[in-house]
Amino acid sequence: MSEVLQGPGAGPMVLVVDDDPLQREEITHCLTNLGIRTHEEGNGHAALKAVASMHPAVVIMDIKMPGMDGIDAVKALQDANGYIPKIILITGYPESLYRANRIGLPIHSVIEKPVPLRHLSQFVLSALEQEEEETTINFSESGAVQGETS
Questions:
Q1: Domain region containing 43
Q2: Using one digit for the tens of pLDDT, what is the confidence trace for 84-105?
Q3: Which end of the chain is more exposed for a tag (fewer CB within 10 A), N or C?
Q4: Domain count, the chain
């Protein structure tokens, strides 16, 4: 759909997935104001393709969407045994909130709509920080030395 790049194009990307274009735009605008690169998609199927090709650090995904909902998209990511970014699910439906908290999938956070953007941005920054720490740990455990080539 659309990708917004801030700065020189380096740094982590956040994928925003929601069937409501106004919700996507609002979240994207908030994140780009923080200097975070974003990409938008409107459904779960498109999100799976975007995750496979772009490897975003964080995915913010609505639970209730036509076609493939957010929970089914997270299950598909897990079943693919590939790259799984930090997942933040959002929903305006209490039953979806309950379901998301009980499914045992690799989800960073579940947030109820309407989402206060300053709170959402804190969840995103926390997820990005955790992603950065895990990447640093994985790099260190690999035994590789920065600047050294084989």
A1: 2-122
A2: 899 999 998 878 877 777 777 8
A3: C
A4: 1
Residue 42 pLDDT level (bands cut at 50, 70, 90): very high
C-alpha distance from residue 119 to each of 40, 72, 97, 123, 131 (Å): 20, 25, 17, 6, 18
CA distances from 108 to 14, 46, 57, 73, 75 (A): 13, 21, 12, 15, 14
132 inside domain: no
CATH number for the domain that contains residue 53? 3.40.50.2300
CB-based burial label for 149 (10 Å; 0-12, 13-18, 19+): exposed
Kindly tell me the burial class for residue 148, based on how many C-beta atoms sit within 10 Å of its own C-beta (0-12, 13-18, 19 or more). Answer: exposed
Q: What is the dihedral of CA 113, 115, 121, 126, to 10 degrees?
A: -40
Other Cβ atoms within 10 Å of 20 Cβ, number: 14
Q: What is the pLDDT of residues 107-135, one digit of tens each?
A: 888 888 888 899 999 999 999 988 777 75
**Res. 150 pLDDT band, cuts 50 70 90:** very low
